[in-house]
Amino acid sequence: MRRRTVTAGNVEEILRATDPARTAEPAAPGPPAPPPAASSPAAGHREEHGLRTEFEFELPRGYVDEAGTVHRHGSMRLATARDELRPQIDLRVKENPAYLSVVLLSQVITRIGTVTDVHAGVVERMYATDVAFLQDFYRRVNSEGHTRAAVTCPHCSGGFEVDLSGGRLGES
């Protein structure tokens, strides 16, 4: 294992050099990958080595793009240590620590509807209700490993679980 000494002046350089998207070698030509099964229980999320790494969600209100289209369905991947460290060197986060969640969410959300380029500007334009939902969703996925929440019925006081990645609140 190689060790590197990191100083404050070259952290960004190291992040760029070790970014998997930039250092990935082109795949060798081979047989095409089989298409994903449309009706399998695993459809809608990726699994790597038996670990669920991507989680579908449905926003309570929805992201409205520049054309006025509302996007509610999306997916979020598990966060890596890099995802949690990178916002610490972001100047916007240094100026305003509350901006950390915007930067962090923009790194782990893989798509919202047909929008696949999810960046901080997209998260900034989301309704506060949706950002709060995504913050809770992020915490559940990365801390607890699932998207279920324990709830109590206000009428009968019966306890049960709901899956937050399913339908919108109030729907079955």
Task: Give a written overview of the molecule.
With 172 residues, the protein is of the alpha+beta class. Helices cover 30% and strands 22% of the residues. It is built from seven helices and seven strands. It has helices at residues 11-17, 20-23, 81-85, 91-95, 100-108, 120-124, 128-144; strands at residues 47-48, 51-52, 54-64, 70-77, 109-112, 148-152, 159-163. The strands form three sheets. A three-stranded antiparallel sheet has the order 3-4-5. A two-stranded antiparallel ribbon has the order 1-2. Strands 6-7 form a two-stranded antiparallel sheet. The chain is globular.
Note the topology:
Layout: H1 11-17, H2 20-23, E1 47-48, E2 51-52, E3 54-64, E4 70-77, H3 81-85, H4 91-95, H5 100-108, E5 109-112, H6 120-124, H7 128-144, E6 148-152, E7 159-163
Antiparallel strand pairs: 1-2, 3-4, 4-5, 6-7
- Biggest pleated sheet: 3 strands, antiparallel
Helix content: 25-40%
Q: What is the tally of helical segments?
A: 7
- The residue ranges in which pLDDT falls below 50 over 5 or more consecutive positions are 22-44, 167-172
Tell me which oligomeric state these chains represent. single chain
The sequence of SSEs as H and E is HHEEEEHHHEHHEE
Strand order of the largest sheet: 3-4-5
CA-CA gap between termini:
51 Å
Task: Calculate Rg over CA atoms.
Answer: 19 Å
Derived structural class: alpha+beta
Question: How confident is the prediction overall: mean pLDDT?
Answer: 77
Query: Hey, roughly how much beta strand do the residues contain?
Result: 15-25%
Number of extended strands: 7
Q: Which word captures the global form?
A: globular
